[in-house]
From TrEMBL:
Substrate binds at Q20, H121, N165, Y297, W400, E407, W408. One of its GO terms (biological process) is cellulose catabolic process. Its EC number is 3.2.1.21. Belongs to the glycosyl hydrolase 1 family. The keyword Hydrolase applies. It comes from the Bacteria. It comes from Jeotgalibacillus campisalis. This is Beta-glucosidase.
Length: 451
Protein backbone atom coordinates (compact mmCIF):
# COMPACT_ATOMS: atom_id res chain seq x y z
CA UNK A 1 0.00 0.00 0.00
CA UNK A 2 1.45 3.38 -0.98
CA UNK A 3 -1.33 5.79 -0.06
CA UNK A 4 -0.40 9.26 1.18
CA UNK A 5 -3.16 10.80 3.35
CA UNK A 6 -3.22 14.45 4.44
CA UNK A 7 -5.25 15.87 7.33
CA UNK A 8 -8.79 17.00 6.53
CA UNK A 9 -7.96 20.62 7.37
CA UNK A 10 -4.88 20.72 5.10
CA UNK A 11 -5.05 23.70 2.72
CA UNK A 12 -4.78 23.09 -1.03
CA UNK A 13 -4.33 25.92 -3.49
CA UNK A 14 -2.50 27.40 -6.44
CA UNK A 15 -0.49 30.57 -6.93
CA UNK A 16 0.19 33.28 -9.52
CA UNK A 17 1.78 36.75 -9.67
CA UNK A 18 0.45 40.00 -11.10
CA UNK A 19 3.05 40.82 -13.77
CA UNK A 20 3.11 37.22 -14.97
CA UNK A 21 -0.63 36.90 -15.68
CA UNK A 22 -2.51 40.21 -15.66
CA UNK A 23 -1.50 41.98 -18.85
CA UNK A 24 -3.39 45.25 -19.33
CA UNK A 25 -0.08 46.97 -18.69
CA UNK A 26 -1.31 50.28 -20.05
CA UNK A 27 -4.91 50.10 -18.82
CA UNK A 28 -6.81 51.11 -15.72
CA UNK A 29 -4.42 53.84 -14.69
CA UNK A 30 -1.54 51.45 -14.05
CA UNK A 31 1.94 52.95 -13.93
CA UNK A 32 5.08 51.33 -15.30
CA UNK A 33 6.99 48.76 -13.24
CA UNK A 34 10.65 47.83 -13.36
CA UNK A 35 9.65 44.73 -15.32
CA UNK A 36 7.99 46.84 -18.01
CA UNK A 37 11.27 48.70 -18.40
CA UNK A 38 13.58 45.69 -18.07
CA UNK A 39 11.66 43.44 -20.46
CA UNK A 40 11.74 46.07 -23.21
CA UNK A 41 15.51 46.45 -23.17
CA UNK A 42 16.91 44.10 -25.85
CA UNK A 43 18.68 41.04 -24.53
CA UNK A 44 17.08 40.92 -21.09
CA UNK A 45 14.21 38.53 -21.85
CA UNK A 46 14.10 35.67 -24.34
CA UNK A 47 12.38 36.48 -27.63
CA UNK A 48 12.02 40.10 -26.44
CA UNK A 49 8.86 38.94 -24.59
CA UNK A 50 7.11 41.17 -22.06
CA UNK A 51 4.05 41.21 -19.81
CA UNK A 52 1.96 43.75 -21.73
CA UNK A 53 -0.70 41.10 -22.43
CA UNK A 54 0.53 37.99 -20.58
CA UNK A 55 -2.53 35.81 -19.85
CA UNK A 56 -4.86 38.83 -19.92
CA UNK A 57 -6.15 37.80 -16.52
CA UNK A 58 -7.02 41.44 -15.84
CA UNK A 59 -9.94 40.95 -18.22
CA UNK A 60 -10.38 37.17 -17.91
CA UNK A 61 -10.26 36.89 -14.11
CA UNK A 62 -13.77 35.43 -13.90
CA UNK A 63 -12.73 32.64 -16.25
CA UNK A 64 -9.67 32.01 -14.11
CA UNK A 65 -11.67 31.95 -10.89
CA UNK A 66 -13.99 29.43 -12.54
CA UNK A 67 -10.95 27.23 -13.16
CA UNK A 68 -10.05 27.52 -9.49
CA UNK A 69 -13.57 26.66 -8.43
CA UNK A 70 -13.67 23.55 -10.61
CA UNK A 71 -10.23 22.53 -9.34
CA UNK A 72 -11.62 22.57 -5.81
CA UNK A 73 -8.93 24.68 -4.12
CA UNK A 74 -9.71 26.35 -0.84
CA UNK A 75 -7.21 29.18 -1.32
CA UNK A 76 -5.68 31.17 -4.16
CA UNK A 77 -2.45 33.09 -3.82
CA UNK A 78 -2.16 36.12 -6.09
CA UNK A 79 -0.23 39.36 -5.92
CA UNK A 80 -1.30 42.96 -6.28
CA UNK A 81 0.63 45.16 -8.69
CA UNK A 82 1.96 48.08 -6.70
CA UNK A 83 1.93 50.38 -9.79
CA UNK A 84 -1.77 49.65 -10.28
CA UNK A 85 -2.44 51.11 -6.84
CA UNK A 86 0.17 53.88 -6.80
CA UNK A 87 1.36 54.53 -10.37
CA UNK A 88 4.14 56.76 -9.03
CA UNK A 89 5.00 54.46 -6.13
CA UNK A 90 3.42 56.79 -3.60
CA UNK A 91 1.39 59.96 -3.83
CA UNK A 92 -1.96 59.80 -5.58
CA UNK A 93 -3.99 56.60 -5.23
CA UNK A 94 -5.35 55.01 -8.42
CA UNK A 95 -8.86 53.99 -7.40
CA UNK A 96 -9.41 52.09 -10.64
CA UNK A 97 -6.56 49.75 -9.80
CA UNK A 98 -7.88 49.20 -6.29
CA UNK A 99 -11.34 48.49 -7.71
CA UNK A 100 -9.94 45.75 -9.97
CA UNK A 101 -8.60 43.82 -6.99
CA UNK A 102 -11.88 44.25 -5.14
CA UNK A 103 -13.65 42.66 -8.12
CA UNK A 104 -11.17 39.78 -8.12
CA UNK A 105 -11.41 39.22 -4.36
CA UNK A 106 -15.22 39.43 -4.44
CA UNK A 107 -15.27 36.81 -7.19
CA UNK A 108 -13.05 34.51 -5.13
CA UNK A 109 -15.16 34.94 -1.99
CA UNK A 110 -18.35 34.33 -3.94
CA UNK A 111 -16.93 30.91 -4.87
CA UNK A 112 -15.71 30.16 -1.33
CA UNK A 113 -12.05 30.53 -2.27
CA UNK A 114 -9.95 32.24 0.38
CA UNK A 115 -7.61 34.90 -1.03
CA UNK A 116 -3.96 34.82 0.02
CA UNK A 117 -2.51 38.11 -1.15
CA UNK A 118 1.15 38.93 -1.81
CA UNK A 119 1.92 42.62 -1.56
CA UNK A 120 5.20 42.54 -3.48
CA UNK A 121 5.99 40.04 -6.22
CA UNK A 122 8.74 42.08 -7.88
CA UNK A 123 6.82 44.70 -9.90
CA UNK A 124 8.30 47.78 -8.22
CA UNK A 125 6.94 51.03 -9.67
CA UNK A 126 9.50 52.39 -12.13
CA UNK A 127 8.99 55.84 -10.61
CA UNK A 128 10.52 54.53 -7.37
CA UNK A 129 13.36 52.83 -9.23
CA UNK A 130 14.12 56.19 -10.82
CA UNK A 131 14.66 57.49 -7.28
CA UNK A 132 16.99 54.65 -6.32
CA UNK A 133 14.58 51.74 -5.97
CA UNK A 134 15.09 49.36 -3.06
CA UNK A 135 18.62 50.69 -2.66
CA UNK A 136 17.02 53.90 -1.41
CA UNK A 137 15.76 53.47 2.16
CA UNK A 138 12.84 55.80 1.36
CA UNK A 139 11.34 52.98 -0.71
CA UNK A 140 10.68 51.19 2.60
CA UNK A 141 8.46 54.12 3.62
CA UNK A 142 6.67 54.02 0.26
CA UNK A 143 6.05 50.28 0.65
CA UNK A 144 4.66 50.75 4.14
CA UNK A 145 2.28 53.43 2.84
CA UNK A 146 1.17 51.09 0.02
CA UNK A 147 0.72 48.22 2.51
CA UNK A 148 -1.35 50.32 4.91
CA UNK A 149 -3.59 51.41 2.04
CA UNK A 150 -4.20 47.81 0.97
CA UNK A 151 -4.71 46.49 4.50
CA UNK A 152 -7.30 49.18 5.24
CA UNK A 153 -9.13 48.73 1.95
CA UNK A 154 -9.38 44.92 2.21
CA UNK A 155 -9.96 44.55 5.94
CA UNK A 156 -12.62 41.87 6.38
CA UNK A 157 -12.08 40.52 2.86
CA UNK A 158 -8.49 39.28 2.93
CA UNK A 159 -7.27 37.62 6.10
CA UNK A 160 -3.99 36.06 4.88
CA UNK A 161 -1.15 38.26 3.70
CA UNK A 162 2.35 37.73 2.33
CA UNK A 163 4.61 40.77 2.44
CA UNK A 164 7.53 39.97 0.12
CA UNK A 165 7.93 37.13 -2.36
CA UNK A 166 11.40 35.60 -2.63
CA UNK A 167 13.57 38.42 -1.25
CA UNK A 168 16.68 36.55 -2.42
CA UNK A 169 15.52 36.86 -6.02
CA UNK A 170 14.44 40.49 -5.60
CA UNK A 171 17.88 41.34 -4.19
CA UNK A 172 20.68 39.03 -5.31
CA UNK A 173 19.29 37.47 -8.50
CA UNK A 174 18.17 40.92 -9.65
CA UNK A 175 20.97 43.18 -8.43
CA UNK A 176 24.06 40.95 -8.09
CA UNK A 177 23.58 38.29 -10.76
CA UNK A 178 21.64 40.78 -12.88
CA UNK A 179 19.26 38.18 -14.32
CA UNK A 180 16.03 39.89 -13.23
CA UNK A 181 14.89 43.50 -13.16
CA UNK A 182 16.48 45.97 -12.72
CA UNK A 183 19.51 43.95 -13.88
CA UNK A 184 22.29 45.38 -11.71
CA UNK A 185 25.48 43.45 -10.86
CA UNK A 186 26.75 44.82 -7.56
CA UNK A 187 27.01 42.65 -4.45
CA UNK A 188 26.94 45.59 -2.03
CA UNK A 189 23.89 47.06 -3.74
CA UNK A 190 22.16 43.68 -3.62
CA UNK A 191 22.98 43.26 0.08
CA UNK A 192 21.66 46.72 0.87
CA UNK A 193 18.48 45.90 -1.05
CA UNK A 194 18.11 42.58 0.78
CA UNK A 195 18.17 44.44 4.10
CA UNK A 196 15.69 47.07 2.94
CA UNK A 197 13.33 44.35 1.68
CA UNK A 198 13.40 42.68 5.07
CA UNK A 199 12.88 46.03 6.77
CA UNK A 200 9.88 46.67 4.51
CA UNK A 201 8.54 43.26 5.48
CA UNK A 202 8.81 44.09 9.19
CA UNK A 203 7.21 47.49 8.76
CA UNK A 204 4.25 45.94 6.94
CA UNK A 205 3.83 43.32 9.68
CA UNK A 206 3.68 46.06 12.31
CA UNK A 207 1.20 48.08 10.23
CA UNK A 208 -1.16 45.14 9.77
CA UNK A 209 -1.23 44.49 13.52
CA UNK A 210 -2.55 48.03 14.02
CA UNK A 211 -5.08 47.89 11.18
CA UNK A 212 -6.42 44.32 11.35
CA UNK A 213 -5.35 42.32 14.39
CA UNK A 214 -7.36 39.29 13.24
CA UNK A 215 -5.51 38.84 9.94
CA UNK A 216 -2.47 36.60 9.51
CA UNK A 217 0.76 37.65 7.86
CA UNK A 218 4.02 36.09 6.75
CA UNK A 219 6.48 36.23 3.88
CA UNK A 220 7.65 33.78 1.21
CA UNK A 221 11.40 33.17 0.88
CA UNK A 222 12.64 30.79 -1.78
CA UNK A 223 15.16 28.09 -0.96
CA UNK A 224 16.81 25.23 -2.75
CA UNK A 225 18.79 22.58 -0.92
CA UNK A 226 22.41 21.60 -1.46
CA UNK A 227 23.60 18.34 0.05
CA UNK A 228 27.29 18.07 0.87
CA UNK A 229 29.21 15.61 -1.31
CA UNK A 230 31.17 14.37 1.69
CA UNK A 231 31.56 14.98 5.40
CA UNK A 232 34.84 16.84 4.84
CA UNK A 233 34.99 20.19 6.58
CA UNK A 234 35.47 22.04 3.30
CA UNK A 235 32.43 20.43 1.66
CA UNK A 236 30.30 20.97 4.74
CA UNK A 237 31.21 24.65 5.04
CA UNK A 238 30.77 25.33 1.33
CA UNK A 239 27.27 23.88 1.42
CA UNK A 240 26.51 25.75 4.63
CA UNK A 241 27.34 29.01 2.87
CA UNK A 242 25.32 28.17 -0.23
CA UNK A 243 22.24 27.09 1.71
CA UNK A 244 22.62 29.90 4.21
CA UNK A 245 22.57 32.53 1.47
CA UNK A 246 18.93 31.66 0.80
CA UNK A 247 17.84 30.30 4.19
CA UNK A 248 19.60 31.88 7.18
CA UNK A 249 20.26 35.22 5.47
CA UNK A 250 16.53 35.83 5.05
CA UNK A 251 15.19 33.84 8.00
CA UNK A 252 17.55 34.46 10.92
CA UNK A 253 16.69 38.20 10.93
CA UNK A 254 12.98 37.36 11.19
CA UNK A 255 13.19 34.53 13.71
CA UNK A 256 16.38 35.36 15.60
CA UNK A 257 16.70 39.13 15.17
CA UNK A 258 20.18 38.94 13.64
CA UNK A 259 22.05 38.06 10.48
CA UNK A 260 24.09 34.82 10.57
CA UNK A 261 27.65 35.59 11.70
CA UNK A 262 29.27 33.06 9.38
CA UNK A 263 27.88 34.86 6.32
CA UNK A 264 28.30 38.39 7.69
CA UNK A 265 31.99 37.59 8.24
CA UNK A 266 32.33 35.90 4.82
CA UNK A 267 30.87 38.92 3.01
CA UNK A 268 33.04 41.34 4.96
CA UNK A 269 36.31 39.43 4.75
CA UNK A 270 36.02 38.17 1.17
CA UNK A 271 33.97 40.84 -0.60
CA UNK A 272 34.18 43.93 1.67
CA UNK A 273 30.37 43.94 1.78
CA UNK A 274 28.41 45.03 4.85
CA UNK A 275 24.77 45.27 5.88
CA UNK A 276 23.53 48.87 6.38
CA UNK A 277 21.77 48.22 9.70
CA UNK A 278 20.44 51.26 11.53
CA UNK A 279 19.34 51.37 15.14
CA UNK A 280 16.05 49.57 15.64
CA UNK A 281 16.09 47.79 12.26
CA UNK A 282 16.43 44.28 13.63
CA UNK A 283 13.59 44.80 16.10
CA UNK A 284 11.35 45.78 13.20
CA UNK A 285 12.45 42.90 10.97
CA UNK A 286 11.91 40.37 13.77
CA UNK A 287 8.33 41.46 14.43
CA UNK A 288 6.44 38.21 15.13
CA UNK A 289 4.74 36.65 12.11
CA UNK A 290 2.01 34.03 11.87
CA UNK A 291 3.55 31.72 9.26
CA UNK A 292 6.32 31.47 6.70
CA UNK A 293 5.78 30.61 3.05
CA UNK A 294 8.36 28.34 1.42
CA UNK A 295 8.99 28.26 -2.33
CA UNK A 296 10.93 25.17 -3.38
CA UNK A 297 11.78 23.86 -6.85
CA UNK A 298 15.16 22.15 -6.94
CA UNK A 299 18.32 20.99 -5.19
CA UNK A 300 21.54 19.12 -5.78
CA UNK A 301 24.70 17.62 -4.32
CA UNK A 302 27.62 20.03 -4.11
CA UNK A 303 31.23 20.21 -2.93
CA UNK A 304 33.97 22.73 -2.21
CA UNK A 305 35.74 24.14 -5.25
CA UNK A 306 38.25 26.90 -4.52
CA UNK A 307 37.58 30.04 -6.50
CA UNK A 308 34.30 28.82 -7.96
CA UNK A 309 31.71 31.53 -7.53
CA UNK A 310 30.92 33.64 -4.51
CA UNK A 311 31.06 30.75 -2.04
CA UNK A 312 33.69 28.44 -3.63
CA UNK A 313 31.24 25.65 -4.40
CA UNK A 314 30.60 23.28 -7.29
CA UNK A 315 27.19 21.80 -8.01
CA UNK A 316 27.66 18.22 -9.17
CA UNK A 317 25.62 16.62 -11.92
CA UNK A 318 24.71 13.04 -11.07
CA UNK A 319 22.80 12.73 -14.33
CA UNK A 320 19.71 14.07 -12.60
CA UNK A 321 16.39 14.03 -14.35
CA UNK A 322 15.64 17.65 -15.11
CA UNK A 323 12.61 19.73 -15.89
CA UNK A 324 12.44 21.58 -19.20
CA UNK A 325 13.96 24.71 -17.63
CA UNK A 326 17.00 22.60 -16.74
CA UNK A 327 16.59 22.36 -12.98
CA UNK A 328 17.46 19.03 -11.29
CA UNK A 329 14.51 17.12 -9.85
CA UNK A 330 15.45 16.68 -6.21
CA UNK A 331 12.45 15.93 -3.97
CA UNK A 332 14.72 14.64 -1.23
CA UNK A 333 15.99 18.20 -0.86
CA UNK A 334 12.45 19.38 -0.13
CA UNK A 335 12.24 17.01 2.84
CA UNK A 336 15.72 18.00 4.02
CA UNK A 337 14.91 21.71 3.76
CA UNK A 338 11.65 21.45 5.69
CA UNK A 339 13.12 19.36 8.48
CA UNK A 340 16.10 21.70 8.72
CA UNK A 341 13.79 24.70 9.10
CA UNK A 342 11.97 22.85 11.86
CA UNK A 343 15.20 22.11 13.68
CA UNK A 344 16.52 25.67 13.38
CA UNK A 345 13.38 27.77 13.90
CA UNK A 346 11.00 25.48 15.73
CA UNK A 347 7.49 24.51 14.70
CA UNK A 348 6.70 27.68 12.78
CA UNK A 349 3.53 27.21 10.71
CA UNK A 350 4.59 26.72 7.08
CA UNK A 351 2.68 27.06 3.84
CA UNK A 352 4.28 25.71 0.68
CA UNK A 353 3.54 28.88 -1.27
CA UNK A 354 5.19 27.67 -4.49
CA UNK A 355 6.21 24.30 -5.83
CA UNK A 356 5.94 23.09 -9.38
CA UNK A 357 7.70 22.05 -12.55
CA UNK A 358 8.38 23.42 -16.01
CA UNK A 359 7.30 21.10 -18.81
CA UNK A 360 6.47 22.54 -22.20
CA UNK A 361 3.91 20.00 -23.40
CA UNK A 362 1.50 21.31 -26.00
CA UNK A 363 -2.17 20.68 -26.72
CA UNK A 364 -2.88 17.60 -28.84
CA UNK A 365 -6.47 16.78 -29.73
CA UNK A 366 -7.68 19.01 -26.91
CA UNK A 367 -5.48 17.33 -24.29
CA UNK A 368 -2.18 18.19 -22.59
CA UNK A 369 -0.43 15.01 -21.49
CA UNK A 370 2.00 16.34 -18.89
CA UNK A 371 2.75 13.09 -17.07
CA UNK A 372 6.20 14.38 -16.06
CA UNK A 373 4.59 17.23 -14.13
CA UNK A 374 2.31 14.78 -12.34
CA UNK A 375 5.32 12.67 -11.41
CA UNK A 376 7.13 15.76 -10.10
CA UNK A 377 4.13 16.84 -8.04
CA UNK A 378 3.69 13.35 -6.59
CA UNK A 379 7.29 13.09 -5.40
CA UNK A 380 7.38 16.60 -3.95
CA UNK A 381 4.01 16.43 -2.24
CA UNK A 382 5.12 13.10 -0.78
CA UNK A 383 8.21 14.88 0.58
CA UNK A 384 5.92 17.44 2.23
CA UNK A 385 3.99 14.58 3.83
CA UNK A 386 7.24 12.97 5.02
CA UNK A 387 8.21 16.24 6.66
CA UNK A 388 4.83 16.52 8.35
CA UNK A 389 5.18 12.99 9.68
CA UNK A 390 8.56 14.08 11.04
CA UNK A 391 6.99 16.92 13.01
CA UNK A 392 7.15 19.84 10.58
CA UNK A 393 4.12 22.10 10.94
CA UNK A 394 3.04 22.37 7.28
CA UNK A 395 -0.45 23.84 6.94
CA UNK A 396 -0.94 23.87 3.18
CA UNK A 397 0.43 23.38 -0.32
CA UNK A 398 -0.02 25.77 -3.24
CA UNK A 399 0.99 24.54 -6.68
CA UNK A 400 2.90 26.86 -8.96
CA UNK A 401 1.19 27.77 -11.11
CA UNK A 402 -2.49 27.88 -11.95
CA UNK A 403 -1.62 28.63 -15.57
CA UNK A 404 1.28 29.05 -17.95
CA UNK A 405 2.48 32.64 -17.81
CA UNK A 406 5.30 35.11 -18.38
CA UNK A 407 8.26 33.31 -16.85
CA UNK A 408 10.40 36.38 -16.19
CA UNK A 409 13.71 36.32 -18.10
CA UNK A 410 12.60 33.12 -19.87
CA UNK A 411 9.65 34.92 -21.45
CA UNK A 412 6.86 32.62 -22.62
CA UNK A 413 9.09 29.67 -23.51
CA UNK A 414 8.86 27.98 -20.11
CA UNK A 415 5.52 26.63 -18.89
CA UNK A 416 4.81 25.96 -15.20
CA UNK A 417 1.00 25.90 -15.29
CA UNK A 418 -1.46 23.11 -14.67
CA UNK A 419 -3.60 24.99 -17.21
CA UNK A 420 -2.15 25.52 -20.69
CA UNK A 421 -2.41 29.02 -22.16
CA UNK A 422 -2.23 29.65 -25.89
CA UNK A 423 -0.48 33.01 -25.88
CA UNK A 424 -1.85 33.86 -29.35
CA UNK A 425 -5.52 33.22 -28.58
CA UNK A 426 -5.33 33.25 -24.74
CA UNK A 427 -7.39 30.05 -24.70
CA UNK A 428 -7.06 28.04 -21.48
CA UNK A 429 -6.82 24.23 -21.66
CA UNK A 430 -6.74 22.10 -18.51
CA UNK A 431 -3.75 19.81 -18.46
CA UNK A 432 -3.78 16.24 -17.17
CA UNK A 433 -1.97 17.56 -14.10
CA UNK A 434 -4.97 19.82 -13.41
CA UNK A 435 -7.25 16.78 -13.30
CA UNK A 436 -4.76 14.82 -11.18
CA UNK A 437 -4.49 17.69 -8.70
CA UNK A 438 -8.28 18.06 -8.64
CA UNK A 439 -8.59 14.40 -7.67
CA UNK A 440 -5.94 14.80 -4.96
CA UNK A 441 -7.72 17.84 -3.53
CA UNK A 442 -11.08 16.08 -3.44
CA UNK A 443 -9.62 13.19 -1.42
CA UNK A 444 -6.70 14.90 0.34
CA UNK A 445 -4.80 11.77 -0.58
CA UNK A 446 -3.15 9.99 -3.48
CA UNK A 447 -1.44 6.72 -4.24
CA UNK A 448 2.27 6.95 -5.00
CA UNK A 449 1.95 4.17 -7.56
CA UNK A 450 -1.50 4.63 -9.08
CA UNK A 451 -1.93 8.39 -8.65
Amino acid sequence: MSKIQFPEDFIWGTATASYQIEGAANEGGRGASIWDTFSKEPGNVKNEDNGDVACNSYHLYKEDVALLKELGVSTYRFSMAWPRIFPNGNGELNQEGLDYYHRLVDELLEHNIKPMCTLYHWDLPQALQDRGGWENRETVDAFDHYAKTIFSSFKGKISTWITINEPWCASYLSNYLGIHAPGKKDLQVATTIAHHLMLAHGRAVQSLRKIDAQAQIGYAPNAGWSEAYSNSEQDQQAVRRANGWQIEWFMDPVFKGEYPDFLVNWFKENENVTVPIQEGDMDVISSPIDFVGINYYTGNVARYDEGNGLFHIENLDFNYERTDIGWPIYPEGFYQLLTYLNERYGQVPIYITENGACYNDGVENGEVKDDNRISYMKSHIASVHRAMQSGVNVKGYLAWSLMDNFEWAEGYDMRFGIVHVDFDTLERTKKNSYYWYKKLISRSSFDLIKG
